[in-house]
Each structure stands twice: as structure tokens, then as C-alpha cells.
Amino acid sequence: MNIQKFFSTKLKIILAFIFIIVAIIAYYTFNQIAENVQKMSRGADSSVDFVPEYPKPNYDGKNKALIDRGEYLTKAGDCIACHTNTLDEGKSFAGGLPMDTPFGTLYSPNITPDKETGIGNWSDDDFLHAMRDGVSPHGTLYYPAFPYLYFNKVATEDLLAIKAYLDSIPPISQKNLENKMVWPFNWRFLQIGWRLMFFYPNKTGPFEANLKESAEWNRGAYLVEGLGHCAMCHTPSHYLLSQKIPLGAPIHKYNLTGAKVQGFLAPNITKTNLENIPTEQIIKVFTENQMVGGGKIEGPMLEANMNSLKLLTTEDLLSIATYIKSVQSQTPPRPKPGKGGVGAVVYQSYCEGCHATGAGGAPKYGDPADWNEPLKQGKEKIYENAIKGIDGMPAKGTCYSCDDNEIKLAVDYMIASVAGKEGKVVREMKKLTLTDGKRIYEADCSVCHKDGFKNAPRLGDKTAWQPMVDAGFINTYLNAITGKNGHPPHAGCATCTDADIKAAVKYMMTESSNKDYSLW
To answer: Measuring CA to CA, which residue among 126, 103, 111, 99 is closest to residue 187?
Structure first.
């Protein structure tokens, strides 16, 4: 027997076996990532129904001025948004908010002063190490969903003031939930690689004032680049394979030039877009939820306004406006025109954030039912609305550098997904009946609404359904599509069309009220 041949054959078998195992693991991992990306693409809720309250501090034997300053800075950092489970109207700063990423779901931790489940036993050094370096007192590396990359720039005295406020609020005993990350991303030590590429080279804090600029400009830069962590949404991120798999690492040369977040467009907020916009109009974005160019703020920015920006002083808001109007960043290259031409490029760069998911009631790309009503008004009216802005639609979709013709081409591109050259729908969506709605309910909705799982209103319970009846059919339908107050996005049905969801909602509301919703 040829020993060398035997071992050569055996080695090939072992290597083939290892390759197969690796291939299976890789397939499983990327399949899970793809599912998470699909889940994220459904978008965030466009409205804000629950705004958590900032707890009143206990000043007994403590430095009141320091605590009050810490409370203000906590608002500037919008800490309450992530550390409160607003989906279930949870207690402020007690954590538990699920945050979906391509790599799994993270749950925010409890940061109240409870000694067992919160940060009550943390020393000042523990807190500074967590905020500046993203490392827990036990040496655990935090995921970049926690914006330590930005908090690294915050002054030590401000971080300690924040801790003084958090130490003074009522302690809440609420255990932290275990993250649900895709393997191998649940191995936190892998964060070392991310940090070597994206954190350590940019670990330049605390913030240093630019002596060539005014005090107002420096204050704005400090808030925007530090506590405000505006770049986390408004800056394109490095990504893995596809832009749909962001790594939570801003591309610094494109600072604040816009990105997509939770199904919404976080617009370009640099000098390119804002230089000619009056400062007062920018302030209204924060205080009156009014978009530059028209329309109402919706989605994650609305939450940021309610929890943070509108609570800041006018002086700080002016500083923020002054700074962002001066930011000069390299503009990300537009995708090369391919199929669909310039219209497709503008759509992908500015319109897709809302129209791909129907966020905020935007007509959904490729959905004939959504475009029927706008098309009845004619293409010229759609052009006008897109250029000037209407309702939640900002002027030119925030592409202020686009000319009117480019916006029209983007509209043409979207209309072409459902209509012919004349702008008339060529494939009507079948209007489903209450009978269809009953069938869809029994197949997909009854799992929660039959027995009241997770407080879902039971079918036929008129009292439980009265809030939805009062809110109206459209709002209830949009809640089911976008996901709200714990309701899964798109009703948790991956195979259902929007028309299916609509039919099911019609059936449930008819069966659970004294009204007939069959004509909707």
C-alpha cells in the first residue's frame, strides 16, 4: 500500500470536509444577515406616539448646578432615545429597546443608578472609560451602535456632569436583555478588528477648539460632532459587500453629506445644501418639525427633535446651524447611470429612502395601488409636488443641487415602475374583499389577534379596537405596514402584499366595530 498516496487522499477528504463545513456556516451567516437587512428595509415608524419623560433628579446632599447641567447635556446627547424601550412605553433610561442591525438585534442597557441591573456601582473612571473608549467596567467591548466614537470627543467635565445626573435619578431594577447577534458577531472580541480600522485612527478626543473660528462655531462643532453624534445618521458608512450592510463606521471625507437610516433619508446637511438656507429656517427643523423646503419631519429625526433638539437653548441651536452651514465635505459620487439613466441615480441617491418602503405615506416604488391616486392628478402635478414639496415630502427630496429636469426624471423613473409612458397605470392591483381579509387574518394575523398575544387587540373586542377606530382606517393600516408600538413591520408577514395587509385590516376593523370598512 502506498502510504504517501493514502495520506494524500485522506488529507484531501479532510480539507473537502472542512471546506463544506465552512461553506455551510458562511451560507447560514449571510442568510441571517440578508434576513436582517430585509427586516430593516421595512422602515421605522413615521410618527412618534410616546415621548419618554426625563426623570426628576434627587438633589439631597448633591451639587444641584452640576446635576442640572448634566441633565441638559444628557438631552443634548439624546441618551433617552436608545436607553428607553419606547416601543413598549418603558421606563426612562431602564433600557430594553431593541435595535436592529444587519448582524442581529441589540438591546440597550439599563443606565439608571440601580446597583444590580444599572450603573449604580460604576466609578467615575468606569463611566469615562465606557463613554470614551466603548469598554464596560468588566472589559466588555461595546458594539458601535453605542456612539462612543463620538462621545470620545466630549469634555471630561461634561461626561462627569452627565453621570451626576444619571446617579441622581430614581433607580429602576430591570434586567438587561441578551443580544441576539448572528454568529460569529456575538463574539465581542471581533470588535478589535473594527476598532483597529475605524476607531483608533480617529480617536482624537476630547474636542479641541479651532481658534480661527468663532465661539458660536466651536460650540456648534462640539455639539454636532460629539454629544449630538449627527454623523451617525447623516454620514455614509463603510459597508460590507453592499451599502445595505453598513458597518457603523462613518466615511469621514463624506461627513454629513447624507445617508439612509431606518427607511428614511437623513439629508445632506453641509454647506452644499444649506449655504443659502436662512438660519431661522434651519432652527424650525428642530423646534417646529418643519423640513427645509417644506413638509413635516418624520421618522427617526422626529424622535431626535422631541427627545433632544427642541429641548436645547436657542443659542445652542443657532450654534449648530452656524456650524453645519459651514461644513465642506467631499460629495459622494453618484452611482453611474445605468438602466434607468439619471432618473434612477437621483432616485437611488435621494428618493429611495422613503419610496422603497412607503415610509411616511410616500407612494411605494413598484406598487400600483399607491400610485393610482397621484396619477389621477397627472404627471405635471406630480412633478410640481416633487419640486416644490408637499406634506411630508420636502422640496426636491432634499436634493437642492438637482435641477428641475433631474427631479422630473426621477419621478418618471418611479412612475415607470407601475405605469406606461403616458403615466397611466397598466396593471391595476386587485381590490381584495372582506372575505379575502378573513382568509389572510386566519392565516397570518390570528396568531396574535385571536388570543390577545402581547396585548394585541382581540378580534371582535370593540373596546380594545376603539383607539384604532378613533385613529381612522388609514392610520391603523399604516401602523400595520410600518410597524408601531410593538407591532411587527408589515404585520410580520413576509409573503403578504400591501393589499393583503389592507384587506386583513379592513376585515378586523369591520368585525371589531360598528362600522363597515369594506369600501376602503
So the answer is: 103
Under DSSP, the state recorded for 506 is H
Q: Which amino acid is at 453?
A: F
The angle at the Cα of 328, spanning 293 to 397, to the nearest 5 degrees, equals: 25
* Cβ-proximal residues to 107 (8 Å cutoff; 6+ apart), any chain: 95, 96, 97, 98, 99, 176, 177, 178, 179
For residue 265, what are the β-bridge partners? 260
Nearest to 364 by CA among 445, 444, 478: 478
Alpha carbon distances (Å) from 127 to 67, 120, 405: 16, 11, 53
Q: How far separated are the first and last CA of the chain, in Å rounded?
A: 80
CA 227-228-234 angle, to 5 degrees, is: 140
Closest CA to 498 of 478, 472, 468, 518: 478
Q: Is 472 left (phi over 0), alpha (psi -120 to 50) or beta?
A: left
**294 in the Ramachandran plot: left (φ > 0), alpha (ψ -120 to 50) or beta?**
left
pLDDT in tens, 182-236: 888 889 888 899 999 999 988 888 999 999 999 999 999 999 999 999 999 999 9
Q: Who contacts 99 (Cβ-Cβ below 8 Å, separation ≥6)?
A: 82, 105, 106, 107, 108, 145
Helices (H), 389-440: 404-416, 434-440
Judge residue 41's burial from the number of C-beta atoms within 10 Å of its C-beta, 0-12 exposed, 13-18 middle, 19 or more buried.
Answer: middle
Q: Is residue 139 within 8 Å of residue 54, measured between CB atoms? A: no
Q: HSE, CB side, 13 Å, CA atoms: give it for residue 378.
A: 3
With H, G, I as helix, E, B as strand and everything else as coil, classify residue 100.
strand
**What are the pLDDT digits (tens) for 295-346?**
678 788 889 999 999 999 999 999 999 999 999 998 887 666 555 677 887 8
Cell triple for residue 377?
Answer: 392628478
Helix, strand or coil, per DSSP, at residue 451: coil
Instruction: Supply φ then ψ for residue 349, to 5 degrees.
Output: -85, -30
